[in-house]
Design a protein that fits this description.
By secondary structure, the protein is an alpha+beta fold. The protein has one domain: 2-Layer Sandwich (Alpha-D-Glucose-1,6-Bisphosphate, Chain A, domain 4). It has 3 helices and 7 strands. The chain has a 7-stranded antiparallel β-sheet with strand order 1-7-6-5-4-3-2, with helices on one face. The protein is globular.
């Protein structure tokens, strides 16, 4: 069973501003509660082919993984993928203007857990949904200051 978690929020800021901040992986530790660090393997700014090493905590475990940017439409969409580890994951952000000052941001995580992860996929999806919601609320708080 795969995991596909979609979470969205409306942020009271222009779309370009939300995309610029949230689409810069350097800010991930500021709004993702479970991300401890990020280190660029390639030089910023983010572009297709960029790679970054992330260290995170999830369900009590330390996870280290490398994301590669596989799709980028500035101001509209960013898609990153990792293939190594027990849970290969694709993370995508989309930003849709509602009007001049409001943006709908969607965060999607999907992947195919391997091994024991296949059995725990429903628990992982629920935990991911809760964490993503909290992270988007934190992002909203940061950007609406």
């Amino acid at each position: 069973m795969g995991v596909d978690v979609v979470t969205e929020i409306v942020i009271e800021r222009p779309s370009a501003e939300v995309a610029e901040y949230a689409g810069d992986p350097s800010h991930a530790t500021e709004w993702y509660a479970n991300i401890d660090s990020i280190e660029w393997r390639t030089a910023p700014p983010v572009q297709v082919g960029s790679t970054m090493d992330f260290v995170a905590r999830f369900l009590g475990r330390r996870l280290a993984y490398t994301y590669e940017v596989i799709d980028l439409v500035p101001g509209q969409r960013l898609v990153m993928r990792t293939a190594q580890g027990p849970f290969p994951m694709e993370t995508s952000y989309t930003w849709q203007p509602i009007d001049a000052g409001r943006t709908r941001m969607t965060l999607r995580n999907r992947g195919e857990p391997a091994g024991f992860g296949k059995i725990t996929a429903p628990v992982m999806a629920a935990a991911m949904r809760r964490a993503n919601h909290k992270d988007l609320v934190r992002l909203k708080q940061i950007l609406e200051r």
